[in-house]
Amino acid sequence: MVKLFIKDVLGIGSDQPGLYGESSAYYGTVEQQGRLTLHLHLLLWISGSLSPQEIRTNMMDVNSAFRQKMLEYLEGAHQGHFIDKNLSEVENDVKFAESDPLYKNPTQTLPDIPPVPCNHSSDPQCPRCDTSNKWWIKFKGTVNDLLYRSNIHSCGDHCLVNGVCKARFPRPIIPQTIVDDNDGSIQLKKLEERLNTFTPTLTYLLRSNSDVTSLLSGTALKAVVAYVTDYITKTPLKTYTIFQTIRDVFDR
């Protein structure tokens, strides 16, 4: 499954660009948690990308086309809020959908294949355009439903240390993307304090929690490389931990 993801979604080893553009390299590992579930930690390098210092220099030019294109790319690659709605609205939508006997939890379904788009501008009289519009409406609703179920962080014993969340929730609300003209740093728009950043298309495909972040500083990049490497060298689970987990599963 991971190999399919790397090839078909990220576009590595494929003749098609990936979800985030042309990719030049990747580095990742699959982690096994204490409850024996698996998840992937992965770094992706985009082909032709500049170094963090070069990006910073270009971002500090207020009138540069690079700055505008960079922000468009970043905001298109990931976001920290629901699609066109807030948490309260999504919660109401999910509860209403669940009242339908035919409703299916999207985490237990497969994604619908998008229809072939028309080669003209949207036309309300065109059946294919109508089908495409309906698919996009369903896409947005499904992604919001998945985010509500899988990406909202709730603090508890698993993350609190002396009353402070290890995952840094709740996170600051940022109404609009901000670029610091003094150092070129970027704070992306984020409207939900307990929602991590994600890519809508990836959420739709994976049907589960995911966390997507763009690393725009050398310090952040080195920290994540060390973080991912730590999983490769992590000591395997103890035998007694494995058997305790199995017992807990059967006890349920």
Compact description:
This protein is 40% helix and 11% strand. It is an alpha+beta fold. The protein has a domain at 1-49 and 217-252.
Provide a descriptive summary of the structure in words.
This protein is an alpha+beta fold. It has a domain at 1-49 and 217-252. Helix content is 40%, strand content 11%. It has helices spanning 2-9, 52-59, 65-77, 87-98, 127-150, 200-206, 218-232, 239-251; strands spanning 23-32, 38-46, 160-161, 164-165, 178-179, 186-187. It has a two-stranded antiparallel sheet with strand order 1-2. A two-stranded antiparallel ribbon has the order 3-4. Strand 5 (178-179) and strand 6 form a beta hairpin. The chain is globular. Pfam families: Helitron_like_N. Residues 2-44 form the Helitron helicase-like domain. It comes from Heliocybe sulcata. This is Helitron helicase-like domain-containing protein.
Name its key features.
252 residues; alpha+beta; two-stranded antiparallel ribbon; 6 strands; 40% helix; globular; Helitron_helicase-like; Helitron helicase-like domain-containing protein
Secondary structure layout:
Blueprint: H1 2-9, E1 23-32, E2 38-46, H2 52-59, H3 65-77, H4 87-98, H5 127-150, E3 160-161, E4 164-165, E5 178-179, E6 186-187, H6 200-206, H7 218-232, H8 239-251
Antiparallel strand pairs: 1-2, 3-4, 5-6
Helix pairs in contact: 4-5, 5-6
Domain Helitron helicase-like: 2-44
InterPro entries: Helitron_helicase-like
Protein name: Helitron helicase-like domain-containing protein
